[in-house]
Fold these 2 entries.
Entry 1:
Amino acid sequence: MSRIADCFQRLADNHQKALVVYVVAGDPTPAVTVPLMHDMVASGASIIELGVPFTDPEAEGPVIQLAHERAMRHRVSLRDTIAMVASFREQDTVTPVVLMGYINPIEAMGYEAFAALAASAGVDGTILVNVPPEEGQVLDQAMLSEGLDPVYLLAPTTPEARARMIFERTRGFIYYVSVKGITGAGNLDIDEVTRRVAAFKAYATTPIVVGFGIKDGESAAQVARVSDGAVVGTALVSLMAANEQEPVRLREAVSELVANMRAAMDAVS
Amino acid sequence: MTSTVENDRQAASEVRAAGINEALTVMPDEKGHFGPYGGQFVSEILMTALAELDQAYRHLKNDKNFLAEFHHDLEHYVGRPSPLYFAERLTKQMGGARIMLKREDLNHTGAHKINNCIGQALLAKYMGKPRVIAETGAGQHGVASATVAARFGLKCRVYMGSDDIARQSPNVYRMKLLGAEVVPVTSGSRTLKDALSEAMRDWVTNVDDTYYIIGTVAGPHPYPMLVRDFQSVIGIEARAQCLKQFGTMPDAVVACVGGGSNAMGIFYPFLEDRDVRLIGVEPAGHGLETGQHAAPLSKGKIGILQGNRTYLMQDSDGQVLDTYSISAGLDYPGVGPEHAWLKDIKRAEYVAVDDKQALHAFRQLNRLEGILPALESAHGLAYAMDLAATMSKDEIIIVNLSGRGDKDIPTMAKLDGISLD
């Protein structure tokens, strides 16, 4: 079984939901990323989405755009990001790490070279914001042959026939983007999320995690109640900006937010 | 000259010898691919909107009422057909082939951009979208979008890089006069590329009531196809005008390429006229060897940005490079996917012209023909002038004079050390 499948099995056994955390590799500095990953796991994160810095993060709101810019100042590349995962794996062989970002750095490296390097470093999969299943077929083959999971996204605008097709293509889990908009935008409409996730469940082939609009324990708990997990991104990344000059305070703040969310989610599961 | 015209002639005759047998005008395929290029590299939120747009366009492009409205506005609002004008004194100066100018600068709003905007505003109207958004570099597409929004009674917001706002101030004020909201984009390189990303962010947020008018033959499918189709009125007219005036096809068609909409518009109707050389001219900025340019077809590598796979200015890590050109409208790291395909199959040739050459052509056209070209168009003109000098007097070159240069007067005055205040 893949690390991701193991993770959801373990969560189910413990009657817990997945807390998926997103940070950008190298934000605010490359040195802080791996310790931060361990901190988040210790505070209750289940899966780490590690953002791959890119010059043109088209789907991101201002908070995550700035995170990409901070990481780009240190010239953190896809190769560097994968090296961080290898370093993380020296101490943690259990927590799934999924690379999240845009296709071009992978295109530049070459699909097969990427899949081989990522798998050997202990990466578990990818979430590529600008690659719908129609454009991901060749990359998927390279990834699947290395045991990596291509994770796809669903949106509020995705009709049922298309959602069924995407479930056939996704591996590990599926990411439901709960808001029409960019990262960090809008507020969670929990009734709508409940309705959509319930509809997906009728034909879902993988766990469903929900992202966008989750900023604290309360919203994480609301989402956890109706799905298989909650993704938190912008709320974590804004702590990077606020504590850019103070790495110790930064790690404390991140750990505190993750622990709060974990506790709130566990209270309702 | 960055690429010598002699070398290019050699390459062109090799293309003709190689021969391409399949039809060239059938592209893209159903999913928007031009060979390996194009496609729909966008977030899931937009996939349904793009499918709706594709469906609406495929239906409307054969709809009599839609086409009648489009052509009515091209004639009565834009002022088409635009003339195919013989630049006699310029031709005499160069001493070779006849230089014919396709006068898109005479269109309403002063550039070819309006052709596409009329088409897309009509699409917005037929699709029931009350709000349009657009990105702009030089401001020509922004002005054209704001113009059609006023004409059709649509709300309009234009995204523009803050660096471009500084260098194209007349167009910024003009958009505001037209009732559009101009939003400065301060992320990334603060130019056209970043304006396009910001417009995409607006679109994912407001996808229900908003139509995104992309200004060039790039972005996700179906944009490269539909923008090309709306702009191909340029080539259809030019081809007929050339036949009427000379009873023959031109020997070469030359156009500047940023995203590539004016070039695609004039090339497309000539694709099957295999003896007609199609030459796209990219901005070499301070020179291709300096790295400070915006010439992905000349110097880029294949990559994916803003919805499509194409040639891209990028580093070895796949990060997009900052570009430079004196012309804001050509200052873009990617290029329309159909150009990438035409380059690979060698149906079109792509060359580059630097700032100095473009400025020289800009001044020459003013002095010899009394025409003020846009700095963008001056790139195509510069190459055509050198090319003409190597050709015989009975040969014909058509240059797409894609826009007029009023917007560039502040830039030019500054270069000449003249204060306009």
Note: The CA atoms of residues 193 and 303 of chain B lie 15 Å apart.
Entry 2:
Amino acid sequence: MPLKKSLILLTMTLLALAQGCNEQSTQTSPSSEVTPAVASRNSAAVDDKPAYGDMLINGSIGDASVLLPVLASDSSSGEINGLIYNGLVKYDKDINLVGELAEKWDVSEDKLKIRFFLKKGVKWHDGKPFTAKDVEYTYKIYVDPKTPTAYSTDFLKVTEFKVLDDYTVEAVYDKPYAPALGSWGQGMLPSHLLEGEDITKSPLKRHPIGTGPYKFKDWVTGEKITVDSFHDYFEGRPYIDRVMTRIIPDLATMFLELKALSIDQMGLTPLQYVRQTNTKWFKDNFNKYKYLGFGYSYLGYNLQDWKFKDKRVRQALTMAIDRESIVQGVLLGLGAVTDSPYKPDTYWYDQNVKKFPYDPEKAKQMLAEAGWKETNDEGVLLKDGKPFEFTIITNHGNDIRKNAAIIIQRDLKKVGIKVHIRVIEWAAFLKNFINKRNFEACLLGWGIGIDPSQIDIWNSKKTGESELNFINYQNPEVDRLLDLGASTYDRQERKKYYDKFQEIIAEDQPYTFLFVQYALPIINSRFHGIEPAPVGIGYNFTKWYVPKRLQKYTIQP
Amino acid sequence: MFLNEDFVRRIGKNKMAMAGLCMVAFLFCVALFENELAPYPPDRIDTSNILAPPTYQHLLGTDVLGRDVLSRIIHGAGVSLSVGFVAVGISTLLGVMLGALSGYYGGALDKAVMRFVDVMLCFPSFFLILAVIAFIGPSIWNIMIVIGITSWMGVARLVRAEFLSIRERDYVQAAISQGASDARIIFLHILPNAMAPILVAATLGIASAVLIESGLSFLGIGVQPPDPSWGNMLTEGKDNIEIAWWLSLFPGMAILITVMGYNMLGEGIRDSLDPRLRR
Amino acid sequence: MRFLVKRIALMIPTLIGITIISFTVMKMAPGDPTSLMTDLNPNMNEEAVKRIRAHYGLDQPWHVQYLKWLKNMAVLDFGRSFAPDNRPVIDKIAERIPITLFINILSMVLIFSVSIPIGVISAVKQNSMFDRVSSLIVFIGFAVPTFWLALLMMILFGVKLDWLPISGFRSLNFARLSPIGQVLDIGKHLVMPIFVSAFGGLAGMSRYMRSNMLEVIRQDYITTARAKGLDERTVIFKHAFRNALLPVITLLGLSVPGLIGGSVIFETIFAIPGMGQLFYQSVMMRDYPTIMGILVIGAALTLVGNLLADILYSWADPRIRVND
């Protein structure tokens, strides 16, 4: 789905954001033995001109929670909100910032002022014009301490916000802040409907009004959410008339629905991708896509725990874990081992970052150097008479993480470390374990933002309760580099800081970086116009279409 | 005592009870000799051979990490049996205690206990169990305890009824008139005579505890990995039902056989005890 | 009428007991329920935490909290959900309860209409082939994990044969179907869920009916009726059947909690947006107000079921006017 702006750096789930090394693995081929309705689906492109109409039915594992981007932090809501709202800026298919609701912008010489010139003639779904007042309201609601939002950090850096005229606004910062521009991609909210209201009680939470390509139609809780194309959309009417998101809380059931052709699109699991979708029938009816996702999984060590204080121990742990076998066994090869908190195929990734390949012998040696020499009768390493034994916690509902943990357990046993695994449901996981620092090691994932700033995860001060440096990583040099990176606009200079940062992280190994997963969307082949790009496939969703002769549903508004 | 020769003879003739007994005995053997019977260690991972269909190497196929399904089912038997026994131990203990007090003393105590039973019976017990387990955290011990304290009501009612009727019998009345202590009467005179229905209820209770445990594990808040539990295995089966039927079929059958074994044994014992139903 | 009033009056202490247990369950949750809400909202400040604590009365001793909670409950105010949608709990439950009730009622109808004949025939022809086969099926029915049955059915009828839809409870084009089409559509969607939810009950009920019937057949008055030379058919249906049926009615009330409890599993598997699914989601999210609301309402539904059963019972057998 069109996730246009992934500013959500810190989502803990791996957002299946599409990107990079795209490969349309399944070439659709003409076929004649399928049912008449789809018989000539893929033949002769002559009359397959873009046409309005039809509906795309999307499968979603969870229901949305709230359809106001400022309040929503779950990916289900995020996907729907992406269709309904626009930001001032967005990332284009090559991950460059371009204007969306903003026609253009000026950044002052000293990088302290950003002035946005808004597009004229943009309408809200209720017909009212979009103006600077809406931007002002949106800014204010994000920084309002009463607003329960997860996205205030960037906007709180704004020291002054000015409305210059109906279509010009200016944000002032007290020092240069490189992620600032991208932060204005957050969805703009309609001030004429929300001003003076308590946003947490607003009816717009369930009946949103935005400026985006699709306008809200209805929401049957736990069942489906429907949006219809907005004919007055400022970038032109989207071809697909309706997008329905069906909530199917179970991936196996969702896959059966896909096979029954009652949903058009879903994200596949590696097993479904490798083992269940290579039949001729699937090739005739669906196109599969595959690209490295914007997120990585890691094993994080609680650095306050005495066992993990020595960096030699952490390096040894990384070397003792056969990460390649996790990628092969759990992801079935649909992923890549990673050694850095950046996405391996992006600009910010440091190609020279130090790697710790699988080497259990060397690991044992290093553990011995760090004092883990003797073993007890179970074969578990001892230091000062205490065994090397710890628990990995991970969240419920993610089999890939659970299975990765089981393989790690096996690998570490080979070098004499005893590992226990606890799978905990999400809310309790955050509340009782992560936020309370009540864990030894955790297996989790971070979404990788498009902007390289990762202060919230690595800064020495971000270790308070509910903050994200929950492993308590402390390194003044890293703090300094990240601050420099955030205040540098020049890309090349900025990259130097982040390269250095990655080198230090690699040496310190506060995490064992595990892998980056591929996003594996599958889409019914009647949809045309899908053009994989570095940012994924959803960026041009409004240009997707179904040729007239292949249209399956007739939409009556 | 109910374990007299007559009973043994009757139950020996009861085909259902015998069939149930065989199934249960079989499971016990499996659980007892799990290490000898399982062809592989249950946690032996082989990522190069995941989701392999049944072959000579792996009679029931392999799972998503290439572990041997047969070995995991064998090791799961122990988990299932211990959950069943401990949970039922707890619920029977609670039920007998409350039922005995209620039936023996009667009066306000009886009223209070029975009211409590009514209230507990009103809750959809699976809801209650799910909520409590999620709150206190899933672990095999928590599951046993929670299933135990949410399923004692039937036993309590039964024991109470038995006590009410046995209490009126001559020999009990005689004991009372001779000034025997309450404890003596309860444990020596009444309880032994109420054992039979308790045994039946407990046997059936094990069956339902096994089912509940598998349901909880299936929903992901039961036994934690990497411990094998039939319910957990079925979750994996569900996720791969189209490509790995063996992952759904065999653990499901293991549950089926276990639960059926206990049910048949329980019902068989009941039939053998209840002379009215005999031909 | 007096019976009814008395019966309803008797429900009140039970209802209070239900709320006490629900409240205890809530107190079992580690820590403070509001900390969950605040933990997930980075911007929740001290002030807001206090406000929420006061709103839920968490700054007061537990008996005061309980009474306050009870007072709100009396007017069906369960508070607002902790889920991000923050809606009133009663709204969330109200929109999901009809489908769950509908499925449960239908499955109960199915249970009764199938299991009673099976039970009667098995009893009358005890040890016949029919009895043996049905006993075996009953034992399997008792022992089958419902989720396993659901999976096997989905594969067979949904995927292999493609006869029935796999999930949800109505089609996408539902609104455009004719009224008859709509009924058929819902019917098709509910075949599997209803069957799965009824299967266990089916086994239990027919077993129960069989043993009741066996017991009744051995009673003196049946022997007398036979001795009088009445034909077997009259004996069985006029005398035995009626009396064997009576205790089954009580089971009607008792089976409500089991059915509702089972809805967690089949609603999750079949993606039916009912109360069971909501409960599972709430438990996973630790949405305490919703969990409590469903627990209380689920138990109250059982009470209503019991009441209905009692009314039915007294109607069917006027001799019985409960005096406890």
Note: The longest helix of chain A spans residues 491-508.
